[in-house]
Design a protein that fits this description.
heterodimer; A: about 525 residues; alpha+beta; 6-stranded mixed sheet; 18 strands; B: about 325 residues; mainly alpha
């Protein structure tokens, strides 16, 4: 009897092992069905500034280099070659040369060459006769003097000064190589790439369909026959669709913490992850006009924030407190905890901070009998409105009575640009966890996205210093120093960094959600369905 | 009659012209345009790039020239290009019309086929438990917002059957095809059915008290003949008016239903186009809806004469 039992156990074990090994062996075929949160304005990644474009269209393209699609934390050490076989910096760190693959074809059959690399980056730098309708990341290539080619399979980026961060910027989902022979207008509607999937159709407000590229240069990939995105702006319908099995995965990083609980209760087998997405919720202050031209009032405002309360109310505790750079452990450049807590307003004793804030307000002429009346402007979108309401509640404690001023999306940036606000609540997303992208874009004097017009020439020198620094440890220390100064200057007080969820069915394999960017992890070339 | 029809057609043209001017002006009075929205995604506005794009899209031209371009194109069947998809507006609008038409048609059918019989039953059994029950149903139909009802249906469907009737352009079975349209049609048609039922009931109650009904009963006509042949025929006129108005109102109801059930019809498309300030799509779609509403009103007026011989036009 015992031997029969042993035999049965052995047989079951063999079955189980064979099942595991079968599951581990990627299977080809199947359509990967994902719902999309909204209808992207176009299919052109270079002209977009929202990951609503990256998620469905990144599988069509390749970059010169790309962040490893299976390591959640993007960093210089996870950069892998893609259209480039290899890369090398010159001795003076001012030239970055890529040797290109020779076996790559565009989806229309034309060969990929170094001319395409030059074309793409010339267009991004505004040096090409062909222009993008809009070019939101032109500033990324500020330090690139020119892109040169040497034959069909070598391209070099010549820099004005060393900028080690350039490689990380090129590895972002925002940096695909475009074909020279296709116009920007066509790329907005019928994109052609070299990537694992070909474009089939994009029906606005309905669906986006991609099909397998059988000539993909990585042999054996992709595993999927195609990817279909169904556009469902209504979040409840979309989540119900996922739970009922209409979709294999939710839109990445779009499931809020309370909704995540619903998903897990209705579909306990669903695999769900919660990751930070490198988006900070912050306050923009018009320091050019009263009352916030007074540094004491700005400091009082920073001291009044109870960041933990924001995170608790909005994300049931699943969020992070930090400076400009994404907090550790997922953020690469975060200040150490003790350094962060030494910044006014970041200390754990909220009541003590507020007491200090009230003193500053009294110094500025306000008090229990004379409250400051202001408006808090923000976009008419829930993720903006909700924290704005909490902010209004919190600043009551320092004699500020604020009224919520919701602004239509079309009017938000024109309003900010003409300084028609005193306090605004804003969200800032970072495509790459990289100080060069964050500092220059949001805090450099004259930058288009420096909404508050904060300008500190001394800090700007530090921006350049860290940008040129090739020693990682030295650079980190410089970044911490800059971030601390930015918070102390109340340049754009950071309230919190959000975390969001993504769920997929257990048979979906090889999906990795990036933990320090929402823009870089959607190539999907080796995703497969175990069913 | 002919003179009346000609006069009505002329009035329809004047109405449509007025609507076209109002839509065109209102759209441009609303702050922000497509260029602002596109730059909003970029996170900043570059004045030079903005001016270039406005020039490219023809938005920098004087408003009168823009209007004449649009109307001129409309008369030649050229609806312009969508600013967002950069495809011809006609190509974007045409495939969506049958989807919404099917949904609206089914909703109206549901509304009439449920609302009228239940209204008659309720009136005939006035004061009975059945009447009270039907009145509660009709009140709930008027009170429940269609988006809420739609979500409840979806949740119940997932919970009970493990699936949901979400839109699929290529349904595999007729049952799937029916559920794709029938369930949302019921969700949006429930309110119309409730209203139709209440109007039918009150109209029937009024007619049932008329002398000629008493006469019909005295002559020995059966209850069914009295209720459906003599009473309903005369009570149906206000019901037709309500159904006509509901047909026009339905577009508003469909915006929510198409969003909840993710149906790519013109109502949801209109909202998205408005969000993007996609003028060519919005103004052509609103004109299309205006034509439908004006045409429905015209048809309802014509139906009056067909149903009630006492009504004559042009006198």
């Amino acid at each position: 009897m015992r031997s029969v039992q042993a035999l049965a156990v052995a047989a079951l074990s063999v079955l189980a092992i064979s099942d595991i090994s079968r599951a581990a062996e990627p299977k080809s075929g199947g359509i990967f069905r994902i719902y999309h949160r909204d209808s992207p304005g176009s299919a052109s990644i270079h002209e977009g500034a929202t990951y609503s474009v990256n998620v469905p269209f990144m599988p069509i393209f390749n970059n010169l280099v790309i962040f490893d699609q299976h390591i959640a934390q993007n960093s210089a050490s996870t950069i892998r070659p893609e259209l480039a076989e290899s890369w090398a910096w010159s001795g003076d760190n001012k030239t970055l040369t890529f040797k290109l693959r020779k076996d790559v074809k565009w989806h229309d059959g034309k060969p990929f060459t170094s001319a395409d690399v030059k074309c793409t980056f010339d267009m991004l730098m505004g040096k090409s006769p062909q222009k993008f309708r809009q070019n939101p990341r032109k500033s990324w290539y500020e330090q690139v003097d020119e892109v040169t080619t040497n034959g069909d399979y070598e391209a070099s980026f010549k820099l004005k000064r060393p900028q080690p961060a350039l490689l990380s910027l090129l590895a972002s989902g925002y940096s695909p190589v475009y074909p020279c022979h296709v116009s920007p207008a066509e790329m907005r509607t019928k994109p052609i790439g070299t990537g694992p999937f070909k474009f089939v159709e994009f029906k606005a407000n309905e669906s986006i369909k991609l099909t397998k590229n059988p000539d993909y240069f990585k042999k054996g990939l992709p595993y999927l026959d195609g990817i279909e995105f169904t556009i469902i702006p209504n979040r409840s319908t979309a989540i119900l669709g996922f739970v009922s099995g209409k979709f294999d995965m939710t839109f990445p990083t779009e499931v809020s913490i309370p909704l995540l609980k619903d998903v897990k209760s209705q579909d306990p087998k669903a695999v769900c992850v919660v990751e930070p997405n490198n988006v900070s919720t912050n306050i923009i202050i018009n320091s050019t006009a009263p009352p916030f031209d007074n540094l004491d009032i700005r400091r009082a405002l920073a001291l009044a924030l109870d960041r933990k309360a924001f995170i608790q109310i909005m994300f049931e505790g699943q969020g992070d407190i930090g400076g400009t750079m994404e907090p550790a452990p997922d953020g690469l450049w975060a200040m150490p905890k003790d350094m962060l807590e030494s910044i006014p307003g970041y200390g754990p004793d909220v009541e003590k901070n507020r007491e200090e804030a009230r003193k500053l307000m009294q110094k500025a002429g306000y008090g229990p009998d004379k409250h400051l009346q202001i408006k808090v402007s923000t976009r008419n979108i829930a993720v903006y409105r909700d924290p704005a309401i909490i902010l209004i509640d919190q600043i009551k404690s320092i004699y500020i009575d604020a009224e919520l001023d919701v602004v239509d999306t079309a009017q938000w940036f024109p309003k900010i640009a003409r300084k028609d606000y005193s306090l605004g609540l804003n969200l800032t997303g970072n495509a790459v966890d990289e100080p060069d992208q964050s500092f220059y874009e949001n805090y450099a004097c004259g930058s288009e996205r420096n909404y508050t017009n904060y300008c500190n020439k001394d800090i700007e020198k530090l921006f350049d210093q860290q940008s040129e620094e090739t020693n990682l440890d030295k650079r980190k220390k410089l970044v911490w120093e800059i971030d601390k100064k930015l918070q102390e200057d109340v340049a754009r007080p950071i309230i919190f960094h959000a975390r969001t969820g993504t769920c997929w069915k257990p048979y979906v394999k090889n999906v990795t959600i990036m933990s320090n960017s929402s823009y870089n992890g959607y190539r999907y070339e080796d995703v497969w369905l175990d069913k | 009659m002919f003179a009346y029809i000609v006069r009505r057609l002329f009035l329809m043209l004047v109405t449509l012209f007025g609507i076209s001017v109002i839509i065109f002006v209102l759209l441009r009075v609303v702050p922000g345009n497509i260029v602002d929205i596109l730059f909003d995604a970029a996170g900043f506005v570059d004045p030079a790039d903005k001016a270039n794009l406005e020039r490219e899209l023809g938005l920098s031209q004087p408003i009168v020239i823009q209007y004449l371009h649009w109307i001129g194109g409309l008369l030649h069947g050229d609806l312009g290009y969508s600013y967002v998809s950069e495809k011809p507006a006609l190509e974007e609008i045409l495939p969506r019309i049958p989807i919404t038409a099917r949904l609206a048609g089914l909703a109206l059918l549901f509304s009439a086929s449920i609302g009228i019989p239940l209204g008659v039953i309720s009136a005939v059994h006035q004061g009975s438990k059945l009447d009270y029950a039907l009145r509660v149903v009709s009140l709930s139909g008027l009170s429940l917002p269609s988006f809420w009802l739609g979500l409840l249906i979806l949740m119940a469907s997932v919970s009970l059957f493990g699936t949901m009737p979400i839109f699929n352009p290529n349904p595999k079975t007729w049952l799937e095809a029916l559920s794709i349209y029938a369930v949302p049609a019921m969700a949006v048609g429930f309110r119309s059915a409730a209203l139709t039922m209440r109007i039918t009931r009150s109209s029937m109650l009024e007619i049932l008290r008329q002398d000629y009904i008493r006469t019909a009963r005295a002559k020995g006509a059966s209850e069914a003949s009295v209720n459906y042949h003599h009473a309903l025929k005369n009570a149906v006129l206000p019901v037709i008016t309500v159904i006509g108005i509901e047909a026009a109102f339905l577009i508003g109801g469909l915006i929510v239903t198409e969003t909840v059930f993710n149906i790519p019809g013109i109502a949801r498309f209109l909202v998205e186009a408005l969000r993007w300030r996609d003028y060519p799509i919005v103004q052509n779609l609103v004109m299309f809806i205006a034509v439908v509403v004006v045409a429905v009103n015209f048809i309802v007026d014509m139906l009056y004469a067909a149903i009630d011989p006492r009504i004559r036009f042009g006198d």
